[in-house]
Each structure stands twice: as C-alpha cells, then as structure tokens.
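Q: What would this chain look like folded?
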Amino acid sequence: MPLEADVLAAFPAEVRIPARLVADGLAASSAISPRVFVVLDDDPTGTQSVADLPVLTRWEVADFAWAFAHEINGRRQRAVYVLTNTRSLDPAEAAARNEEVVRNALAAAAAVPAGAGPRLRLSFVSRSDSTLRGHFPLEPDVIAATVAAVAGEATDGVVIVPAFPDAGRVTIGGVHYMRGTGEDAGALTPVAETEFAKDASFGFANSELARYVEEKSEGRVAADSVIVLDLNIIRASTDPQISAKAIADAIESATDSTPIVADVVSENDLRALALGLEEAERRGKKLLYRVGPPFVRARIGQEIRAELSGEEAYAGNAPSEAGGLIVVGSHVGVTTRQLKALTEQHSAARIVEIDVEKLLAAETETGSADSYLDETVDKVVEALRGSDVIVHTSRLLIRAHDAAESLRIARTVSAAVVAVVNRTLKTFPPRFVIAKGGITSSDVAAHGLEIRHAIVRGPMLPGIVSLWEPVDGPAKGIPYTVFAGNVGDDQSLAAVTRKLSNTF
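A: My prediction, written as structure tokens:
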C-alpha cells in the first residue's frame, strides 16, 4: 500500500480557501435567478456532511414547493435533499424514480406564482457512495435525459467526485483510495482492493476513476475520453481565482455528458473545485454532478458544522423518558465492530436480534413473517420501558447467486426492520432513533418513522453522522440519527448513543 505522503509529494500543497468565498460567488450568480441544488440521494447518508437543509422522503410537486419555500434561520436554502433510496432498487426502478424526481422538481420550480419572485434555477446532484457502489452511469444518464426532455437543456459534463475526506476516501492522480487507520494510518488502499468493491450488487474492479467509468459504462465511454482534474489543476495557484480559471479551462471541451473526474484530498480541494465549477457554469457550461457526501457542502459554500452535543440534539423538543432505539442493519466489517463495542460498553441496553434465517424461512413457509415480527415488537416495547434497545439483524450475511436475488433478500430484511420500528413507534415512542446502514436508515426514515419532511440539523460526529429533525408525522420531535454502515471507527456508534441516551 502506498503512503499518502509519498503519493502527494508529486503535487502542489493545498491552498486554504474560505467557505465564504464560495458562498459569495454562488450568491452573486443567484442574484437575478435564485439557484437551488436538488440532491437525489441514493441513501440518506449523503446528509451527513451538511447542516440546516431540508430533506424530503417523498417527491411530489407539493413536497418540492415546501422545500423551495422553507426558511431556516430566516432564509431559503441553496440545496434540498431528496431521499430516493435507489441503491436498494433494481436498475429499471432506479431509472423511473430518478426521472420522476427530476420531472417534479422542475415542475415545482416552474410553478412560482406571478409576482412571487423569479423562477428558480435548478442544478441536479446525483449523490452516491464514496466507495463507488450504486447505479452508475444509469442515474446521471437518466437525470441528463430528463432535463433535456423537460427543459430542453443538454448536459455538457458529468462531474464525478466520490471523495469523502472526513471518512478517509480521497482521490489522487485520478485514483480513488481509502485511507488506512490504526496500524495502517498514513497508507492508502485503492478502493477496488477493499471489501466494498466485492459488493454483490455493485461490485467493480477499477480504482482509477477513468477506467471505472469505462468499466461501468461497459465500454460506451472510453477511459481516455474522461477529463481528469488532478491536483495540479485543482491547486494550480495560491490564488483561488486563478485555480478556478484553470479548472474551467480544463473542462471547456466537455460536451454531451463528458465524464469529468476530480482529485480531492481535503475540504480546501472541494472548495477550489467549487469555484472552478462555478466559473465554468458562468461561462455557459451545463453540468451535472455525481458525488460523495461532502461535495454539496463545499459547492454551496457552507461552513463545516461542529458536531452537535446531546443538548443541541434535543433543542426545542422535550425528550421522553423512554429508552432509545438503535437499529443496525449494515453488515460491513466496521458496523459489526461498532455493534460489538456498543454492546460491550452499554450494559444497560437490551439486545433484540432479528434472525434473518428465521425471517426468510417464515416468508417462504407461510407467505408472511407477521407472527415472528409481532413477537419481536413485543420484546422491543417491553425493553424500551426501562432501557435503550439495540435491534440488529443477525450478523451472518446470506448471499444469493445473482444481484437481483441479493436485492430481494436485502429488501425482505429491510422490510422486517421497518415493520419493527413502525409498530414500536405506534405503540411506545422511543426517546431517540439511530439507524445504522444506508438502506436501513432510508427505510427507517421514510417508512418506519413515516418522515416526509425533515431538517438536517448537523453532524453527531465530525462530518460523518447526520441528525435529522422530523417536522411532521408520528416521529415529530424524536431525534433521528442517520449512520452510514461504512463510516466511523470502532467506538463511533457507542459515542453517538452515549450523547442521546439517558441510561448509558
């Protein structure tokens, strides 16, 4: 494994760029026609890097109208997140959902009443996994095609920025890496050599992003046609405006959805990129974005929000005396280690396991797992009366022979988790809810807690774990923590639980 310091030695040092510089540039370009970034988030963990932005789990025109008009701290926001959960869908379903979201967002933007202000300008962001799992290139392809069909606007370039430095995902020289931890601190592992590249539904073989694009497009896009913005361009000058021009110059040739991949090692690199993209768009380039979590924060010039305290998490709401509910569905290695650390440290917590083999057997034998789920809910509710409850799926990951069957099993398990959460909420609302895992946290939000509209309050850990405040539905006032399966160290789940719990 190469050392990060050695790989970076070939490139210029990073340049400090204030978030305000990006925000001011965006404000200037929005002075006449206000601009909003609509983020199609393929699981809810994309919100972990931002604060004070609206989130939708439904996407009818009326939902967008609410989000576009909603004011936080006295002003409307530059971005709105839409929880599409498409990573849990098959390609046809994912395509249909992307198209529906884009059509409705454009309809809502066009429906500003006369005299109510200028029409909104929308930019679309396809937010996906920082370890390259997801429906690519399908999702940006569908978004671009829908924008062209509805608005008559062709996309010149698709900007691909999976980097997530807060979680140890960086791109250098066009290669996407994971930073090592513990004994491997300082080392870089090409992402194709990690467990994430072996994903049953979204596996891949290339860490070099241009070759990844060629691989996932099945050769439709050649690697040598991809524009690579390496650190020599991102950090072209100590003057951010000169670097911005260098970035805009480098993508001048982009046309017909040309893929553009960008090196990012730090927040400063993301901000430099944001300035360059703003300059390119000022020149007339029409861009679409396929990105990891922190891109939107940098693109709109938002400061990095300090992690929330337990008191801030409950601000404006009176916490109940019930126990909290921690739901763990992810099976990646770091989640299993985090679960182990939590159960070892939180001796007061009750543990309820959803046995996946029993669940699938019940579905197969009787056509319904209701009786098994009823028993599980009874255990959870009884335990919540005196302690926090950890609900987790059994740690044995059941794999199928093909991607479609793997997705079917994942959906069955997720539906069971959702049912347990929803029935518990209707019977005995918990003090807080933490959901661990991308698909898990999406389904728990939209269906388990029936959240339709929420506000991202900020991170519970620096840059990697998001707290939502539901603004309607049965979960209103219950802090909801979205915790990706593949982020944090072994102690992170325990740390978040400790902040929210009254028994830990």
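The chain has a mean pLDDT of 92.
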